[in-house]
Description:
Blueprint: E1 2-13, E2 16-27, E3 31-35, H1 42-49, E4 57-62, E5 65-66, H2 72-76, E6 79-82, H3 94-99, H4 114-126, H5 142-155, E7 160-164, H6 172-189, E8 192-196, H7 200-206, E9 209-214, E10 217-222, H8 224-227, H9 230-237, E11 239-245, E12 252-259, E13 269-270
Parallel strand pairs: 3-8, 3-9, 6-7, 7-8, 11-13
Antiparallel strand pairs: 1-2, 1-4, 4-5, 9-10, 11-12
Helix pairs in contact: 4-5
Amino acid sequence: MVRLYTDDLNISYGEKLIVKNLSVKIPDKKITTIIGSNGCGKSTLLKAITRIISHQSGTVILDGENISKESTKILAKKMAILPQTPESASGLTVGELVSYGRFPYQKGFGRLTKKDYEVIDWALEVTGTKDFKFRPVDALSGGQRQRVWIAMALAQETEIIFLDEPTTYLDMAHQLEVLELLQKLNRDQDRTIVMVLHDLNQAARFADYMIALKAGEIVKTGSCEEVMVHEVLKEVFQIDAVIGRDPRTNKPMCVTYNLLRGETTNEETTIPYYANVGTNY
């Protein structure tokens, strides 16, 4: 089932065309990861789909409706986005910032209800930020702030969540915590998750579906097995990658790679498992 898709989407910054005639379907109730080199249009695509920026031509369709014609509150009950560089939260406590996720549900004078407070506390709990509830956001470390922003997105209680590099500023353990949380939300609550990730192995490990972009155009879409292959990574990143299998998840993984630097390679190098190159599990 597909609730969300784009059709011939073109997005420009000034006179520079960033995304070109892009048509893509986002699988419902699945985790989709978007990969590509810096400046290829990943973040721009997320912003256009969530109506943060406008597109020059083409359409974004959600539940059969053009999102450009939807009211902001209705759209905000369906889609939430955590941008790559969230706006400043200067002067706000953690609890206050997370409460902004309840905006689409407020009426009248905008007072928070018992349900709002319950959702806020749940979002703080699952992101490990409950102890910071009354602390200023400015007083937190980069990793702590990132988790608070994720809590705000979760408090919005949308069926679709977009995250632009959600593991930025986080150490390895907290990266895994965040990604496992998003995976749990997908599996337990059928949330549709769409993420831009730079780490290819994380992208493949947690994705049901992958989108590979280059210069604003799709190179390949499909399962991890279809996208995380030598030829796709060669075209998207200009690398000669060795693809193996994660012995714990059996997902494809990039074991090692070289920059191509102008040379060509015609052979796809694969190994069955990463353990075969000297790592014991």
